[in-house]
Amino acid sequence: MAFDNQIAEALRALEAAGLRRHPRQIQGAQGPELEIDGRRVVCLCSNNYLGLASHPAIVQAAVQAAQEEGVGSGASRLITGTMDAHAQAEAAFSEFVGAAEAVLFSTGYAANLGAIQALVGDGDAVFSDALNHASLIDGCRLSRARTYVYRHGDPGHLEELLQAHRPQARRALIATDSLFSMDGVTAPVQELERLARNFDAGLLVDEAHALGVLGPMGRGVCAEQGVAPDLIVGTLGKSFGTAGAFVAGSGALVDFIRNRARSYVYSTAPSPVLVRAALAALPLVRDADDRRTQLLLHAARLGAALRELGFDVPDIRSQILPVFVGDNDRTMRLSHELFERGVFVQGIRPPTVPVGTARLRLTPMATHRTEHIDRAIGAFAASAPKREEAGT
To answer: Going by C-beta distance under 8 Å and a sequence separation of 6 or more, which residues neighbour residue 1?
Structure first.
């Protein structure tokens, strides 16, 4: 039991630092309101941005797939796991983002991990934004390439690192989120593309949180800014309301990933149920301009109202609104206060965000109604007298 005791002590240390997680349990389907512990609350911390997770057409596609194709895929893609659904989805999603080919993964984490690990290795260099998602960071680590971290959103610093380290590397890859999930800001993808071309480097852009929300037909930040990266990573568990992910790029890049990405080669293929659901979601996402408009209007109204109340919320164009608090315990106290007032907003603490930058992460949905946003603003207003204590 010595090992168990050591882990128990580590848990106590997390608790003392305000870093132990206790996830709330949801009853029923995902939506603008949730049932938690027997009460209805407004949900403002979901990535179900367009509100499609329970859309009837997507649910029906999943049901039909289960009946006709079963639930499990049986094996990895390179054995017996490649089914018609996978091939059809890869063709559809590559076309959606304007790439030659795509390859499906079970999660966005697996997609980033596998793509980076496959494409660069010992003797190569990868250049990563300081605020990249954990999956990109872990992909860099697993690859065994030399990793150079540039200051967040700073092409000038990236250029300095490329000048210093690109000449010694066999291959080089620049990796970035397009819309940073905890800050709600976008990467300077045009500058990153220019640097990639100037220094003979690949560019991987993870569009996880932008896909479905930003750009023409929800095609993401790169499409919005006229950028064609070497690789686009897209996840299906956010705006698409399902699960899974894809990596899209040239035929050579995608084929190499299929052969070398460990999280693809050694994982059971995604369930045909989820793949068919994602295919059903694609036309809904593509034609969701009204939902995208409503989502960003909700976010803009929330941000303006919270700034007026004195909370530290940046003025950005995004569906992701960080409410900066700083202290871990104060962040969670504010989250608890809001929950008691009928609004579920999760606190975000290190290591997800840098030390000293704990925050609430607000993410409205297109399917929220005006009264939901009113309730949220009212709950924050009731907490506003305590905002100095909360560090806001």
So the answer is: none
Torsion of CA 335, 240, 211, 266, to 10 degrees: 100
- Which residue segments constitute the domains of the chain, with CATH numbers given? 19-50+288-386 (3.90.1150.10), 56-286 (3.40.640.10)
Q: Which residue has the tokens 């809001």?
A: 338
Q: Is it true that the peptide bond before 351 is cis, omega within 30 degrees of 0? A: yes
Q: Cβ distance 85 to 242 under 8 Å? A: no
Provide block-wise average pLDDT over 10 residues at a time, the chain (392 residues).
89 89 88 92 97 97 98 96 97 98 98 98 98 97 97 98 98 98 97 98 98 98 98 98 98 98 97 98 98 98 96 95 94 94 94 93 97 96 64 41
Strand arrangement, sheet containing 321-326: 321-326, 358-362, 347-348
Q: How many CB atoms lie within 10 A of CB 105?
A: 27
Active site residues: 181, 209, 238
Can you read off the two tokens belonging to residue 303?
């941000």
What are residue 125's phi and psi, to 5 degrees?
-135, 140
Quote the CA–CA distance of 76 and 62 in Å, as a whole number: 21
**Cα gap 21→30, rounded to integer Å:** 21
> Sign of the C-alpha dihedral, residues 192, 194, 197, 198?
negative
Rounded to whole angstroms, how far apart are CA atoms 121 and 117? 7
